[in-house]
Amino acid sequence: METGIGGLGAYLSAVLSIVIIDLALSGDNAAVIALAIRELPLHQRKKAAILGAGGAILLRVIFTIIATFLLMIPYLRAIGGVILLAITWKLIKQDEETGEEKISASTRFWRAVGTIIIADLSMAFDNVLAVAGAAHGHPGLVIFGLALSIPILVADSNWLASLMNRYPIIIYIAAAVLARTALEMIVHDNGLALVHYLGALVGILIPFIAGGIVILWGILEIKRRQRREGGVKESTRGIR
């Protein structure tokens, strides 16, 4: 980067761009963290979010350095999308588990941390490329941009996790965001070239339709659960 007033202006412009990028792209990542930590005790949530996001950010720095090379590998975005779909399915099914499955607090904690790292990395391409582009190849700015993601993600994810416990539909809205992101990664993969075959409009619609299906399924699942719980209460009342 240039020195002097012009260089300072370019530097500050790059910093501002990175902050805006982090704020704009943190939604999907905050959603996956919130889904992963919502089952943890309150005192463990922030710790799991920091460890998971921190581990993912550390690996993102490495990814950013080799981002150009990674994008040349066919099917890599599609593979990341499939992984994210699998993780999304696992996270929303976790909400429907019964209390019969005995998982230790320690196991649940580290499972949440691992899920955050894997899911975050699977959809990190857009964030990594955007930050790398805004930093204009300046390694210090790259590290600053990725490090800035941590407090944003931790704050957003803790807030989302609290809302999920109060309003179950938010779990499925977050899952819909992740499903849309995963389908976008698959549809826009250079190796598959699905946009070329399906057309740009269809390529845009498919991810949003997938997200809508997840939300619809969530509404039906919540209603089914409410009916089941209502039936249990009625049967208990009848026994009395």
Automatic annotation (TrEMBL):
GO cellular component: membrane
Bilayer topology term: Multi-pass membrane protein
Subcellular localization, as worded in the UniProt entry: Membrane
Pfam family, one: TerC
Residues passing through the membrane, by range: 12-37, 49-69, 75-92, 113-135, 141-162, 169-188, 194-220
Keywords for the protein's UniProt record, in alphabetical order: Membrane, Transmembrane, Transmembrane helix
Domain of life: Bacteria
Cross-referenced InterPro entries: Integral_membrane_TerC, Integral_membrane_YjbE
Recorded coiled-coil stretches: none
Record keyword Repeat present: no
PANTHER family xrefs: MEMBRANE BOUND PREDICTED REDOX MODULATOR, SLL1022 PROTEIN
Family recorded in the similarity comment: Belongs to the TerC family.
Name of the protein described by the UniProt record: Integral membrane protein, YjbE family
Organism whose genome encodes this protein: Thermanaeromonas toyohensis ToBE
